Amino acid sequence: MADKDINSNKVLIISYYWPPAGGPGVQRWLKFVKYLPDYGIQPVVYVPENPTYPLIDKGLQDEVNPQAVIIKKLITEPYNWASAFSKKSTKDISSGIIPDKKKQSLLQRLMLWVRGNLFIPDARVLWVRPSVAFLKDYITKHNITTVITTGPPHSLHLIGLQLKKEQGINWVADFRDPWTTIGYHKELKLSNPAAKKHKEMEHEVLNTADHVIVTSPTTKKEFEAITTKPVTVITNGYDVESIGRQIPDEKFTLAHIGSFLSERNPLALWQALQELINENEAFREAFQLKLIGAVSAEVIASINQAGLTGFVNNMGYVSHNTALAEQRKSQVLLLIEINSEETKCIIPGKLFEYMAAERPILAIGPEGADLADIMKTTNTGVFATYSEKDKVKNTLLEFFQNYREGNLKANAIAIGLQHYSRKSLTSQLAELLKRL
After folding, report:
1. Which of 10, 217, 252, 356 lies deepest, with the highest CB count within 10 Å?
2. Closest to 383 in 3D by CA, of 339, 331, 413
3. Residue from 335, 273, 336 nearest 306 by CA
4. Res 106 pLDDT > 80
């Protein structure tokens, strides 16, 4: 596609997370931007100049499409002020790692109350006013008629809301996660007025945007009860990475990649593993639990209590490329989602990377989870609920027997997987944008 054709069809994408940010929040729009020029759309990306990212992955900067125009403006970050009191608590809370209520310190409780009641909808709200003032002039000068905002942080949708009101642009609001029903929302110690304000903002955004994009069918259903505006599901996905095949781990490794939050603490899994280790000498000799990413103290305590301490390889946070390589090395990939009604809609981005790694997946989550349907249609693993200890145990035992026989692998359905490639998903996005 010639540059002339691309430049005639610009779209402004407003995002908080952008390289060198690490973690899952950056992947969705980094990849959309990578492929949009292939469909004749010129991406212009607006991001903060001095953000406070809880995770850094400088390697992702190499993945930014050179055809993208990147513009930046300074942001005021309250988390910088909070870190003067406790860097660890600030980093944890900004990452979504919220300690159990019974174990929260006075400072942590205060930080959560301030975050929920003084910074509505979130701590990046101070970026809204200066961004609107800057972007009004920018989009006029550069003849941009379509704006996309992506959240969380959902304060970025307020930028789109104001630009829609003042400039009359076409506005697409992309929700990587829900707003008032997201898992940690109820942990923010919201006063009644603050909770009402969140609801009002959510309602106004959903009913003012020209189009709403969500990542799961459950969120689509939830939002369609709030707005008559069109809501489209475009899930997260996987990319064709230059990682290549890896030599599988010699150990029977069960690997979890990503943040292991306090609420993602599957006691049924730890009990099943404890029983397998006690009952099966071969399993005991071969097993290793591989943890990659931030792990909450509550999860570590449960692992230790189950007698699994000596079987843990806690690697901490690693780069995205290293995480992809570890996925391909691991014998079984573990995916845990919070066991609640609100999290049925969450389809973690790592699910799709897991599927592309061609390793069997053991997923544990709430009954009726959207991710279970995807795993079933792609035949990429086994899903169990938090109460199904026997199913978890039997699945692990079956995987282990296949491992010992040398034939442990995923039997994914290739056609089903292709639907979730980043390029295929970007094609869906491009078609939506061209219809606006």
Report:
1. 356
2. 339
3. 273
4. no
Write the pLDDT tens digit of every residue in 354-368. 999 989 999 999 999
Residues in the chain: 436
Task: Give the pLDDT of residue 82.
Answer: 45
Spatial CB neighbours of 135, under 8 Å, sequence gap ≥ 6: 12, 14, 46, 147, 159, 163
- As a whole number of angstroms, the distance between CA 50 and CA 93 comes to 19
Of 329, 254, 319, the closest CA to residue 293 belongs to 319
Residue 374, Cα to own-chain centre: how many angstroms?
Answer: 16
Give the residue carrying structure tokens 């901490």.
Answer: 316
What's the pLDDT score for residue 24? Answer: 85
CB atoms within 10 A of CB 435: 8
pLDDT score of 244: 74
Distance of CA 167 to the CA centre of its chain: 31
- The alpha carbon of 94 is separated from its chain's Cα centroid by a whole number of angstroms, namely 14
CA 221, CA 232: separation in Å to the nearest integer? 10
Query: Residue 333 and residue 360: Cα distance in Å, rounded?
Result: 6
Please give the C-alpha separations between residue 265 and each of 262, 301, 310, 368, in angstroms, as whole numbers: 6, 10, 19, 18
Q: What is the CA radius of gyration of the chain?
A: 22
Residue 11 parent element (H or E)? strand 10-14
pLDDT in tens, 216-275: 999 999 999 999 999 999 999 999 776 778 899 999 999 999 989 888 999 999 999 999
CB contact at 8 A, 289 and 312: yes
